[in-house]
Amino acid sequence: MTATRPPRTTEADRSEPLPRGTPAWRPSPIAGYGLLGDTRTAALVSADGAVDWLCAPAFDGEPVFGALLGGPEAGTFLAGPVLPAQRIARRYRHHSTTLETVWSSGAGRLTLTEAMVAEVAGQLLPTTVLIRRLTAEGSPMAAVIDFDPRLGEQHRRPRVRRGRDLVCGWGPLALSLGCSPELDLEPGRPKLLTVSPGRPVTLVLALAYGEPLIHLDPATAWGLVEADEARWRAWTDDVDERIPFREPVLRSLLTLRLLTYSPSGAPVAAPTTSLPEDPGGMRNWDYRYAWPRDASIGVGAFLGASKSAEARKFLGWLLHASRLQRPRLPALLTLAGGHVPAERTLQGWPGYAGSTPVRTGNGAASQHQLDGYGWVLDAAWVLVQGGHRLYSETWRAMRGFADLVALRWQEPDAGIWEIRADAAQHVHSKMMGWLALDRALRIGQSHHLSARHRQRWQSARDNIAAEIRAKGFDPARNTYTRTYGSSDLDAALLVLPIIGLEEAGSARVKGTVDATLRELSAGFPFLYRYPPGRDGLPGTEGAFLPCSFWLVQALAHTGRHAEATALFTALLGNATPLGLYSEEIDPATGALLGNFPQALTHAALVQAALALRDTRTAGGGDATDRGRRAFIFPDAPGHQEEQRTASPVSRKQTP
Predict the structure, then answer these.
(1) Among 19, 308, 547, 589, which residue carries the largest CB count within 10 Å?
(2) Cβ(426)–Cβ(409) under 8 Å?
């Protein structure tokens, strides 16, 4: 039996969207949205040219365009063809963050090209600027512009004044819209126009909070977009040429960079809240905050791609953000390093595809999650390993994290998946506690460390390892388990071949990888993160995409390079046409689920590609395993035709 990949939800599923404001209107499939960003906030643009999500003045602010979750009355900014028109192409311009969408109708073609410009002449702009341009080819094209900003939960209409730009204000927050040629635009009233060849229509949206608005002449503003493209191309040129699958890696790195809040260096998990993991259900969470764990994975991705400046910015943010709660490491923080707001529900919001509640804030902020310390200290170690020395205050903070792990590692915690039930003895959390102490000891070889600290950390590290082996392993199935004494598995354990707790070629490591493939398969190439339904919440969820990329790493580091490459290739086929990923995917339909785009998925993609690079160059089985091992996904290609004949393949030990 050969595997069949589920149909991917594509932009083409909605080539003729219903007019906005009609009772039957609903937002695009998640995969139909493109991302624009300026490293302060981000916009999601639908397949029909509508900004359906934009928060101001930052990622975690109130939405000014919120149709994605609140319907048309929550605000939108449409610039596109008058229906019907057929969309024939959509792409990011080469190695940039400029989005281009092309529609055709009769003999004419209408193109929307747009970008959020972050910098001018190397300086960060003080306000957010979105530039959109409509151009026509062939024959004139009928177009529509619908600028309808509404603020926040109550969909507040702005105060409007006119000068050389249209200005909409809500107290300290203001938006301005300029247009060339001048158009008589009015908020909430769609404007029909004709775009003729050689006569582009340029729209410039500027956003300011408590500061004067910047006026950019729409007639000349397009030069800023071209300069911005050149800046991004120069940034991508520095990425290691040896990384396999370089184009999707570059798109993921650009996405991660757009999701980094430049004023502080904090990486946001996603620019959205409440996109459902279970459509129609209640698994809707606010991801517009910074998780130190996810951010640390992103640090590894940036460092592996020769982008150390981004890694240093993150550690600088973490040092500042954790200062008031140190040595405790919060599970998540605001972009400015503060306490995440209490979780609450927006009243009257219908949610995406009827999925309620729509939430702001996140209750996981109060959880104890031991694994976060391991991720952070591992990121610091990778930085040190790359030849960078930690500042004294940074090393002091890292020592405090290691001290806390040595003190509290025996306590139950909420785990990496933030289960909203009683805390438990999660095996993955213990492994990451071990990693925190191991990496702190390694950093201490080149940084000041007292004998007392070294002895305490070594003792705790060894005790954690002994307890994991005694209580977290099921010898009957030859696999580590989700919690002590449980029969459940956890896909987060796929980090085992990478962290160095055991040799990657050991029977226990290989058994854990094989058991995860066998018992958590959601159909090739997907994995569930734990057995579906075992989290105490109603409803179901999809396959968890970062876990599949972690599987690529695990296969590569256990000598199964050809399988890892095949899996990675299959996963790339499930990106959106623009190369973006959410956190989860419906394994039956291929529809993306959860907040979008998801930084953790893109960081895991980059790290998986780095694993393919490193194991290939380190003799990780590029030739030795080809044709000799087959996936043990039950429905994977070749499963019925080949039997897996394992033979040990050595690899370079993780430092």
Answers:
(1) 547
(2) no
